[in-house]
Amino acid sequence: MPALANLGLSTRRYALGLGFALEGLKYFKYWVAAALVLSFAVPLIVSQYTDITLSAWFYTANAGKWFTAFVGGGFVYTLVPTMVAAGLTRRELAVSMGVFGLLWSLLLGAIAFAGILGERAYYGALGWSQGLDAGDVIAPIGTLGDTAAFAAHYPLLYLVYFLAGTVIGIASYRWEASGWLLLVPIIPVVFSLDNGLYRTEPVGPGWAGFLGLFMDDWARWFIVAAIVVVAAGLAAAAYRILIDVPLRSKQA
């Protein structure tokens, strides 16, 4: 990633956001590769003992959402003192994190999208059923078009998880003792919207998605719109906290 001194003042915030995304993907590339291998190898092993009726990639992609939240929170928590000490303003860092979040979500969303389509072809070739655990029944995802439509929301979901992690991360830096408590209202809202969108429980604690029980009758487009609104609110909250965060001097 280029040094701040080598970047123009007017564009360095965007260049850094791009750099964060590329370096993050480069750093975690083996994690992504391992997820791909395991998602396609484990069903092959399990098929020796039982019929395959569940999409392994669905659960891998959901675990990736939590991973994305940790990336957003971990990066901002670490970068605040480092980048500001290097000469970047808080406002520039906020914009850089926004660019990072958008690109990271698009990159991982594209991987998730390609992965579930690849899994569909893989399962079809082996005569398996690509379905979801919808409580009492296994619900098949459906045709190729259904699968593509199902996966189309991944970039948006990754973005809202990234923003949720970022808000919690910067709040934890801003208010050391109590900032992490923001996860109490944030997690149920984000998790429940995810749950409501797919009509199934994503990977994670079931209690966190309890609000999804009230979304059974909501139209899919309405839930997507709600996710966009929540993402915008989280972005505004992260920006507001970050530009006002005080820097703590190191203790001697």
UniProtKB/TrEMBL annotation:
- Chain coiled-coil ranges: none
Mind listing the UniProt keywords for this protein, alphabetically? Membrane, Transmembrane, Transmembrane helix
Tell me what this protein is called: Methane monooxygenase/ammonia monooxygenase subunit C
Record lineage:
Bacteria, Bacillati, Actinomycetota, Actinomycetes, Glycomycetales
Keyword presence, Phosphoprotein: no
Keyword Transmembrane among record annotations? yes
Task: Give the transmembrane region(s).
Answer: 27-46, 66-86, 93-117, 156-173, 180-198, 218-242
Recorded source organism is: Glycomyces endophyticus
